[in-house]
Amino acid sequence: MLSIRNLSVSIGGKPIIKKLSLEVREGEVHAIMGPNGSGKSTLASVIAGRDRFDVDEGEIEYMGQNLFKMPAEMRAREGIFLGFQYPVEIPGVSMANFMRTAINEKRKYLGLDPLSGAEFLKLMEEKKKIVDIQSKLTKRSVNEGFSGGEKKKNEIFQMALLEPRLAILDETDSGLDIDALKVVANGVNKLRRKDNATVVITHYQRLLDYIIPDFVHVLFDGKIIKSGGKELAYELEEKGYEWVKKEAASNQ
Amino acid sequence: MADKNDKLLKEVGSSDYKYGFYTDIEMDQAPRGLTEDTIRFISAKKNEPEFMLEFRLRAFRHWKTLKEPEWAHVEYPPIDYQDLIYYSAPRKKPKYESLDEVDPELLETFEKLGIPLEEQKMLAGVAVDAVMDSVSVGSTFKETLAEHGIIFCSFSEALQKHPDLIKKYMGTVIPYTDNFFSALNSAVFSDGSFVYIPRGVRCPLELSTYFRINAANTGQFERTLIVAEEGSYVSYMEGCTAPIRDENQLHAAIVEIIAHKDAEVKYSTVQNWWPGDKQGKGGVYNFVSKRGICEGENSRISWTQVETGSAITWKYPSLILKGDNSSGEFYSVAVTNNRQQADTGTKMIHLGKNTRSTIISKGISGGESNNSYRGLVKTSKNAVNSRNFSQCDSLLLGDMCGAHTFPYLDVGNKSSIVEHEATTSKISEDQLFYCLQRGIDMEGAIGLIVNGYAKEVLSKLPMEFAVEAQKLLSISLEGSVG
Questions:
Q1: pLDDT tens across B304-328, in order?
Q2: Residue B111: pLDDT band with limits 50, 70, 90
Q3: What is the CATH number of the domain that holds A74?
């Protein structure tokens, strides 16, 4: 589904991602872990199509297409979803209006008729249950005045509505208490299917108690320095990143 | 009444003769240029009473002594006032009994503009007095309004049927001596609307008028007069669109509102005239004078405007709060894109005790446009305990556009409280990317964000207008971010 090959990315001449390769197939859940500043969020942004980065080399193929030839909104309509680490506020635009616009843009792209107001409301009620989101939240402006937990839940709620093929969740667990964490993880698990894939970017092993990954990758200084199964996450939790860093250094 | 009309017609006829001026009744346009003869032509064309002609001539003579104002933050080539046509009428103008009799071509044009008269009559419950190229072509719901004693008709009709009311109120809020463009309008105004709400009557319908500029190179000079008697209420809406034009079109309207004791008038407008092409060629010059007076105690007037069109907008819907405890509001969204220029705002003149005013202005600029807010809040010595709150926000959609705020505060007594808040922000890349990432394209994203930004003002518009205005904002900003 997603093939990243030899990718190098910089911002303002400063290299951030260095010759990174990653393969994500349908039905898989990948976890990308790593200390602050290792390039995790940059990787997520580049996949989603943020244009403030310079891609110096390498390629990303998504569903057989060259991702760099698709503008951000096309990537979204083709099923790439980014759960933001810091969801922005859009004052005056209701959540409902925002999501209805998003869904109908996608449907138009796919050659489907737009959802009517009633159909959309029905869909929204259905999806609200997945993340246990309160009714009044969808009437409020996008993320405006939402608590940290509400913002993150709201990201998963949007994901539920858009039913992406590839979801990238950028530090969705940061700032969440354990109850909210469970709700978010539970939402992700409910949305998991054989034909979609999820990339969970996280700092801590904590989230991986609830979302069980098939693969864990350690990102450090713009490179994946170690990959393994879910047990790698526990090892990291126990021994810390220093252990992997040393191992990587000795391998070189 | 009929006798009176006949008498007026005779008067007009004889005055034509007196000045040695002959009206070619088949002629639908005034000759190019502006002289006393042009004014007599217009007045005669419209069978106006003598006092009207005299008013026009006085205004014209005064106008000739004035110079075009240059203080606004706008630039445009000099206008040759002698190269304009000051009156043009659609072919013939019979009194229609029903819409069936209206020229199908005219109806088709309205249709294209998205103003289905028929549907509006049937569905919206809105009485529509559609003004096309200066002459009223259709009026509806007259009967319902008549039952309440409400007068809602074209200005020309009002001059024939209610000359006393016109004579009493016209020019009392904006005298022709007020400014260059009000003098010009007073001399040559073509038509407009007249609204009269009798004492204690709450107007059961939203009153609306659609204006449109049609004939090429014809100045449009509308004149609206709204009088709300003691304890009455009316909500009046005005909206307009214009087709693509090569040459600049001058528009200098006047709107006067008078609210007596305990009366309330809500005036809403959506203005979408041809703004010119991307290079700024063509487009309407909109130099408008709008002012209301809260004459009586506890009276209230609100202006709500959504300005998206015109090459140049020069417009300051203002209020004189004369009656004690009267209040005024100004809610505005002004959008400029490409090379549009807008200098708009309001004046709140507090004269009475305990008078209150609120100003919410939202400027949005994109492309290489310039958007200025200019406002005056003045409280007189007698306006004790008066209050004003002003909020002026500017949103920039690029780095080639400009936003300016010129607030003037003049506080004449110690008990008044005047507050002014202003913000300038740029549409954020994070907001745009958030929308893009959800599959909404750039134009859609800007539309959403801008509508959200302007919501506070849009929510003041009557429902059907609000929907139209939202679409308009999105359309107006196409291509505004590089």
A1: 998 887 788 889 999 999 999 999 9
A2: low
A3: 3.40.50.300
Local structure of B357: helix, strand or coil: strand
Nearest to A204 by CA among A242, A247, A171, A168: A171
Listed as ranges, residues in chain A with pLDDT below 50 are none
A17 neighbors A185 (Cβ within 8 angstroms): no
Q: What pLDDT score was predicted for residue B209?
A: 61
What span, in angstroms and rounded, lies between the C-alpha atoms of B43 and B37?
Answer: 10
pLDDT band at B81 (very low <50, low <70, confident <90, very high): confident
pTM greater than 0.80: no
The residue type of A137 is: L
Which element (helix H / strand E) includes B396? strand B387-396
| Cβ-based burial of B396 (10 A; exposed 0-12, middle 13-18, buried ≥19) | buried
CA distance A95 to A140: 6
If we measure between CA atoms, which residue out of B321, B467, B347, B336 comes closest to residue B395? B336
Query: What's the pLDDT tens digit per position in A19-76?
Result: 999 999 999 999 999 888 899 999 999 999 998 899 999 999 999 999 999 999 999 9
Distance from C-alpha of B173 to C-alpha of B292, rounded to nearest angstrom: 7
d(C-alpha B12, C-alpha B93), whole Å = 19
Task: Please check whether residue B198 is in contact with residue B149, taking contact to mean a CB–CB distance below 8 angstroms.
Answer: yes
Cβ partners under 8 Å of residue A41, min gap 6: A85, A170, A171, A201
Q: What are phi and psi of B75, to 5 degrees?
A: -130, 135
Q: B100 pLDDT exceeds 80?
A: no
> Which chain B residue lies closest to A80 (C-alpha atoms)?
B437
d(CA A82, CA A170): 7
Contact B444/A105, CB-based, under 8 Å?
Answer: yes
Chain B residues in contact with A90 by the CB 8 A cut-off are 431, 434-435, 448-449, 452
Distance, in Å, from the CA atom of B327 to the CA atom of B310, rounded to the nearest integer, reads 30
Residues of B in contact with A48 (CB under 8 A): 437
Give me the residues of B, 395-434, that contact A with CB < 8 A: 428-431, 433-434
Cβ of B437 within 8 Å of Cβ of A77? The answer is no
Distance between CA atoms of residues B406 and B372, nearest Å: 7
pLDDT band at B154 (very low <50, low <70, confident <90, very high): confident
Give how many domains chain A has, as a whole number.
1
Name, in order, each residue with C-beta under 8 angstroms of A209's C-beta and a sequence gap of 6 or more: none
Query: Does residue B245 register a pLDDT over 60?
Result: no
What CA–CA distance (Å, rounded) separates A83 from A79?
A: 13
Comparing B16-20, B242-246, B273-277, the range with the smallest average pLDDT is: B16-20
Mutation site, A81, A93, A103, interface B, largest B CB count within 10 A:
A93
Question: Which residues have a Cβ under 8 Å from the Cβ of A252 and sit 6 or more positions away?
Answer: none
What burial class does residue B308 get, using C-beta atoms within 10 Å of its C-beta: 0-12 exposed, 13-18 middle, 19+ buried?
Answer: buried
> In angstroms, what separates the C-alpha of A247 from chain B's closest C-alpha?
37
* Domain membership of residue A75 as a residue range: 2-251
φ and ψ at A228, to 5 degrees? -170, -165
**What DSSP assignment string belongs to A57-99?**
EEEEEETTEEGGGS-HHHHHHTTEEEE-SSPPPEEEEEHHHHH
pLDDT above 90: residue B265: yes
